[in-house]
Each structure stands twice: as C-alpha cells, then as structure tokens.
Amino acid sequence: MRNKEVAEKFYELAKLAEIAGENPFKVRAYLEAARRIENLTVPIEDLAKENKLTEIKGIGKSIAEKIVQYLSTGKIEKLEMLKEKVPPSLLELEKVPGLGAKRAKILYETLGIKTVDELRKAAESGKIRNLPGFGEKTEKKILEGLKSMRDKTVDRVLLGIAYPLAQSIVQKLRENSPIDKIQVCGSIRRMKETIGDIDILVTSEKPDKVMDAFVKLPQVKEVIVKGDTKTSIFTHENLQVDLRVVEPSSFGAAIQYFTGSRQHNIHLRELAIKKGLKINEYGVFDLSTNRKIAGEREEDVYEALGLQWIPPEMREDRGEIELAEKHEIPTLIELKDIKGDLHMHTTYSDGTASIENMAKEAMKLGYEYIVISDHAKALGIANGLSIERYLEEKKEIESLNKKYAPFKIFLGTELNILTDGELDFSDEQLGIFDICLAGIHTAFNQSKEQMTKRILSAIRNPHVRIIVHPTGRILNGRGGFDLDLDKLFSEAKKRGTVFEINSSPERLDLSDLNAKKAKEEYGLRLSIDTDAHSTDSLRNMFYGVGVARRAWLTKEDVINTKSLKEFEAFLQERKNEKK
Length: 579
Ligand code: DGT
Ligand code: CA
Ligand code: CA
Known about the structure:
The protein is an alpha/beta fold. It has 24 helices and 17 strands. It has 4 domains: 3-151, DNA polymerase, domain 1 (Orthogonal Bundle), CATH 1.10.150; 157-245, Beta Polymerase, domain 2 (2-Layer Sandwich), CATH 3.30.460.10; 253-325, Beta Polymerase, domain 3; 335-578, Metal-dependent hydrolases (TIM Barrel).
C-alpha cells in the first residue's frame, strides 16, 4: 500500500504551493487530499487502477491526475515545477518555530533569506524587526525558535543505537587493554532517550596502553584528540566517545560527576556548600580542613552529603535529591521484575516470526506469559486481521498453550482508534479476545480536541484495557500528537485503563515525564511492552524499563510484573464487570 508515500507528496505540494504564494484554495485542497489519502483503509493504487480516485471525498479531477502521474512515473510535474521556483532550503526555514510558511516567504522575498543560518544572522543583527508585519516581538520569537530547534535537533542518537555501541566498546576495551574498573557514564547511564555523546571512565595502572588500544578499536572512524588522561574519537555512526582514565581513589566521585545530569550536579554542589563541603570530580572535601572525605565509591560520595544513593535514571534534579535527603528513594522497577510482554506482532499481521517462535523467545527471557496483539483489519498497510483470521490465531494459540504449559499465550489485538473514535470491531466481536489494546495509527493531523476525543472514546470502551504508544511520537521523526493528557489520564483512572510505555527505541512512548505524571498525578497503572515485530526486538523491554525508572515507577505501578496467576485475575476483573 502506497498511501502514506502519496500523502507525503501532497503535504510537500501544499507546503511548497503555500510558500510560492499560490491560490490558498489550492493549498488547502492539497492538504485535504493528503489527509484523505492518509486515512484511506484501502490501497490508493487499487483505487487508481479501478479509476475510482474521484470517488474519494475531497479529491477532484486535477488531484486524481496528479496521483496517477505519481503512481506511474514517481513524480508530480507540478511538484517538480514548484521545487524549481522555491529553494528547498525554504522548507527548513518554514520549520523554525514562530515563523511558518507565510513569513518564510516574506523573508525570502524581501531580504533574500534562504537558509536557517541566514535567518539567524538577520535576526541577530536586528534586521527582521523592521519588516512590515514582523516587529521586535516576532524577531525575539524567531531567535527563541532557532535556539530550541538547535537544542532539539543537534544530531542526538537514539539510546537504542548508542547503548549497544557503548557496550561493544567496553567489551573490546576489556579484551584489549589492561583495565581495572570501567563504567559508562553520562546520559547513557541515565537511560536518556537520546544521546549526545558517550562518556566512559576507566581506572588502570597503564593508562597509555588503554589509550593506544582505544584509538585502534574497530568502532573508531576518526581520532579527535588523544591524551594521557582523556581521548576522544568519532565512531562510524559519527557519535563522539570520550574516554577518561582516573585515579582509583577518585573513581566514585568521577563517575558521579560524569554521569550528571548537569542540573543534578549543580544542585549537589549547592547542597555541599551548605554543609561546609566541596564536591567535584575528585571527591568530596571538608572545606575547613580541605580533607577528602569520599571519592573511591559513588555510594560514599552521596553518603558524605547526607544522601541515600540515587539511581542514575533519577538524576535529573526533579526532586530526587530531596527524596534522598529523607532516605525515601523508591525501589525502582527492574528488568527482572517483568513477567510478560503484552504487545507483539507475528506473521499473521506484519511481524517476521511465528507465534511459536515469539513464545519460545519469551520463555528464554524468563517470562511466564505473552499477549499476541496483531494489527486489526482497518490497518491494511500492516495486513490487519479480520475476526475470522483472529479465530484461526486463537486455535493455534490454544494448541501451543497445551504444548508449552504452564507458559501461557493470550489472544490480544491491537485495535485502530479510527478518526471518529470508533474501533475496528463491534463490542460483541471484541468478546473473543483475552485482552484488547488500542492505538492511533492514521489521521495524525486532527486538532487537539479531536485527537483527545478519539482516545477518550477508546478509553471508555469496556473492552479496551491498554492504550498503546499513546502520543504517537517518533524520536528524531515526528513529535507527538497534540493531546490533553490530563483529560485522558483522569478518564483512564476512572475506567481502570492502562497506558503503555512502548519500549521500541524510536518511540519510548509514554515518555519519562508523561509516565511520571500518569503515576504521580493520577495514580495510573502502566504496562511496559515491546511492540516487537521480531524475536530480537523482544529484548527492547530493557529500554522501556529505563523509561519507567526515569519516571520513578516501582514494580507495583506496572501490570506486567504480575505473575501469570495475578495477570489472569486482572483479565478476569473486567470480564466480571461486563457480566
Ligand atoms: P549528552 O551527552 O548530551 O547526551 O548528555 P550528558 O549528560 O552525557 O552530558 P555531557 O556528555 O556533556 O557530560 C557528561 C556529564 O558531565 C554531565 O551529565 C554532567 C557532567 N558535566 C559536563 N559538563 C558539566 C558542567 O559544565 N557542569 C557540571 N556540573 N557538570 C558537567
Ligand atoms: Ca554524554
Ligand atoms: Ca561528553
């Protein structure tokens, strides 16, 4: 199905037409067409073949021609024409928060600004405020927009890429050099969703040998700087890795310092001063005597400040230091607490493995149960299942359950929350499932009110227990939908609906902050699921648990820490209510 691809072209067409100053009705027609195409549940190429494109609401003759043109040649003449007229860099410009297509066009026409760089220079030198319709306030907004853009998009790498990379470097270093202790610090140790650079600390009696081995690792593309105590390199992924060799007597203080976060460290420093102490990467010192009172072990560093040790995932200065002062740091959830995975796909829909192979892998991970949740029929692009197909799946599951007992497979479904909040099947049909998951997979561009209403109606459906990848964000891709999370969380609390932390490294959705809010402000229960489409990706659970730890969740907050028996009781609760 090429719907998404075709829709993208019309979004692009709308953008360029807008910047080129074309008739606004046309612009809106392109946009409308893009949305309609995105929402189609049948392949657009089929409709084109059958000459039925104009039967789609909002698609007239001229747009239908463009679709046919694109499907047969890979190009739309009109789009190519606009690309010649409008410099492509203007598309970048238009993305600057506070600017938009209209203003981007004015800036291009009056000041000849084509790139983000040129925009920054013009804004910094005060040239923009004098343009009609702009003013000082707009100029300031543009500068702020530019800054936030830079903060967000400086090539941060997904944790799912950086974490295994760091592990492989650690392993190679251990094999090839005389290392005593080694610790990955920085944002990786804090399990942040994206990573700026990798920070590794070691102790060794022969630092020069360690540095020699480091720059020769196969992961190294380029050496930035090589020194006695610090060496920095670029990996082939263009990720910077800083390796520092420190004294064993300072190792604890150093890993504390380089784990951060910066905010957490600043707060610690203030606290130290209040207590007549000083803290830095070498240790904790008594200011009056200048004597070192801690440094070798990280626990001692915290203890010297009168604090309980704080798990790295919590070190963001979000109140964890206050908790540690009272010795009230919660026992965070751990990977080993997870007893089952509630969200995964098989070859029945768009997964690459059979039900049996997913089950076998889950057993290897030590789980007691899994939920198979293949896509439902409205998601044609993912080969969504009809009720008949789910019944076949159910049969296969029943026979596998006999074979592998006491391990248990449940029949689930990942329903589509359609544009009007409806689901793929009637309430009666939903009765065949052990558990229903629901999520948004199409029509991402509705208003905040509509999006919120859609999910609210899924929460209110008595069959739906879990809302999956709730905000729809894709890291380094699209931001989340505009949603009123407070409304959703409070309704979910009333109905006992669970929100998912999706462990796929591109998603990690709910995010740490949203999951923290769900628990703290609404007492919601969450699930941590992988949404695996292969046996390998069942291992992504680790990243979801990282998010949960950053959200300060304990085992009790997460439903898939339940034993099989408890989980069956949890499923039964809802069945009883419905009777
Ligand atoms: P990243 O690399 O952007 O994903 O984030 P981090 O947290 O790994 O930051 P990075 O690599 O710049 O520095 C590693 C840690 O070193 C950071 O979390 C805290 C510490 N650090 C770095 N610069 C400063 C600083 O200026 N002040 C303080 N207090 N700590 C710093
Ligand atoms: Ca870092
Ligand atoms: Ca660094």
